[in-house]
Amino acid sequence: MKFKLVPIAALLAAALASPAALAQKKYDPGASDTEIRIGNTNPYSGPASAYGTIGKAIGAYFKMVNEEGGVKGRKINFISYDDGYSPPKTVEMVRKLVEQDNVLFVFQTLGTPSNTAIHKYMNMQKVPQMHVATGATKWNDPRNFPWTMGWQPNYQTEGRIYAQYILKHKPNAKIGILYQNDDYGKDYVKGLKDGLADKATMIVKEVSYEVTDPTVDSQIVQLQASGADTFFNVTTPKFAAQAIRKAYDTGWKPLHFLNNVSVQIGTVLKPAGLEKSVGLISTAYLKDPTDKEWANDPAVKKWEEFMKKYYPEGSLIDSANMYAYTVASTLHQVLKQAGDNLTRENIMKQAADLKGFAVDTLIPGIKMNTSAGDFAPIESVQLMKFNGTQWERFGEVIGK
Amino acid sequence: MSRRQLIVLVVVIAAACALPFLVSNYRTFQFTLVLIYSVALLGLNILTGFNGQISLGHGAFYAIGAYCTAVLMDKFGVPYWATLPVAGAVCLVAGFLFGLPALRLEGLYLALATFALGVSLPQLLKYHQFEKWTGGVQGIVIPKPEAPFGLPLKPDQWLYFFTLAVTLVMFALAWNLLRGRVGRALVAIRDQHVAAEAMGVNNAIYKSLAFGVSAMYTGIAGALGAIAVQFVAPDSFNIFLSIVFLVGIVIGGLASISGAIYGALFIQFVPNIADEISKAAPWAIFGIFLIGFVYLMPLGVAGALRMAVARLGRKRHNF
Q: Who among A87, A96, A210 is closest to B235 (CB)?
């Protein structure tokens, strides 16, 4: 008995002798010497289940991290539940994650309505709602919601970038705007106006449409009649295709900016007509796995290897998997920065302290910067122009 | 009600009251949802189980109830408990009015008409003329009720008891309604509407009323749901909700009052179990559960329990 106590006593003595080492390790629920528990909801079923691949790819990423030894020896336990893109289900599942699974924080919960449903709850519980998967601007509001952070470039940021381009290249433009009448559409318009600042008088006409409208043809005719020579097109895929086609068919040849929401070639530009889409300008921030320019890019190659090894059933042409890999890399960095201080407060603090952090799957030159007053990690993008077969990026990376 | 049934009822209610003190807040919240679903299922059961009218659109009434509560609380500052009667009344009228033209439709045609209602409502909620009140696609966030009179209850526990009280009242009313004249008339119409008419049952009135009352139940459930989840948005009430309700009453037991509770337990917990078994195909697992239940308990859980009790009674008799 005496002998058995010796090593324990020795350990105790060692522990007492180094209070500094002990003090450094701080944990909130969900973190320990061996594990970091992270919660997530994704639509694995239901109308938005195409996005479900994001949750699976993030899970695969952390599997890779764990096989490589985890983060400072701690394994990531990524718990992801299906919410079917239904906000009440998101509330239920997130409560389960926080109250029953005791996760340290939730990460990449997907969808604007789903995140709105848990926004207040997360901030009341003081559990980080980290890097949400939506582009609304309201996630960057550290003063009122200090526990919520976005990730992708938000709609206002993108709007500001088009404004910068217009001011530089077409200072006498007459701008016509078509936008969807909801938070998403209004965010873009606000961004553009903020970017134009005192030159907002360049906007000669603003028209909106409702998601329930059958077409946007009459809006395009109105914009053309206003004498606008620059078209800011803030529409979701179906309406984007209609607008591109109508703007071409009526003989209106404006300088045409298309929001990043609708840049898909297969579902937007093909139905609109590829020849009618020539000259469209939009933005990108991720390397597109189908872009020939990246065919031999080491980062894209590394991503392909990751996909083949850890997520072989995932699609290699789906940019959502590239997105998942990149956002998971961002969180990986936040956890590395947090070190042994794994409290919820420190997670938010570290996430708000990214300085020039770049993931190699982002377009070169795009860096993440956050601070206590700026909860928007990616705020720069590169412009691109459609050449009739694919998007060609041009110019420098712009934004912050 | 026999003495034994009464004892069972008292034990069940006592257990329900003890529950929130035994489990976590999260579980309490889940059981609150079970109670809410059971009220909705009871409503649908009055229409489909007792009266034989199939509805694939009850999610719409659930949504109307939820929006009534959310709009009243958010825009007019009405306290949460006072919104329930309004939500119920609005849905009663809506259901009755929808039931009138639906009278001409039988069986599958009625199912299609109600399906149309269920499909269209989420889009109508996004309509911009209503946006001032409904908040459009963004929906409405409402605050969580706290326990009144300084009761030492957590908000989740208080909400559970509030919901439990409403649920008990709704079940008592339904029991009262269905065991007497009205219940017999509804069942008679379901089984043989010509014969029912010959006996002096006014088919038109009873069918429309069944629709109205059914919608009222589901609407009140929707109102409770909005308070519990603290958020409404059009995406919360898609057509799938209506179908899940139908699944719930069939699994629980058609034309059975207690069946609504079993059905509610099923639709609350089985999808979660399915999700835990497989991320890749949660609905396939759900389907297996569904087929299993239908195959093993063709009369629903309530029917199977009834048969089990009867068999037990017989055995005891043999001894």
A: A87
